[in-house]
Amino acid sequence: QVQLVESGGGLVQAGGSLRLSCAASGLTNRNYDMGWYRQAPGKEREFVAINRWSSGNTYYAGSVKGRFTSSRDNAKNTVYLQMSNLKPEDTAIYYCNVHLTLGGYDYWGQGTQVTVSS
Length: 118
Description:
4-stranded antiparallel β-sheet; 11 strands; 7-stranded mixed β-sheet; single chain; mainly beta
């Protein structure tokens, strides 16, 4: 059974930093992308960042580029999201995502709340 366990959310003032972690277990191969999405109140879930397995490249949404850094530790099956210079509009529930490159199936973490006060 695949499980994604997130940690690291919380309350921070604007301009502050937080680091999210997501540990995956139960995956039988390494052909998967790992990334982050977020959902603010009253809005749809949106893409934040993705670490591609095939190329090793990382891609970001324009709204977070230059402020957020996503990194992946393949030995630990863990992905991190370092968030800096946080803004109130970054307030959302952040979800970890694993996307299987073979078959296209997605797994999701339980979500962790990030609240940025002004």
